[in-house]
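Standup notes
- DV: blocked on the single-chain target, sequence here:
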Amino acid sequence: MIVSTDRHDSRNRSGIVAVSILRNFALDLGVRIDHDCDILTRLLPALPPD
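- DV (later): unblocked, structure below
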């Protein structure tokens, strides 16, 4: 197994984790996410107002 310490790889992993968290949050709210690029456009309207 090759472990990369490249900064780009680290940011990519962070992005994957962030998308996973947002996807799970959307599912908890009952928001259907077909593609990762739809997460914010579908999730933001589902959030309760301040």
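- Follow-up: The chain has one domain: 12-46.
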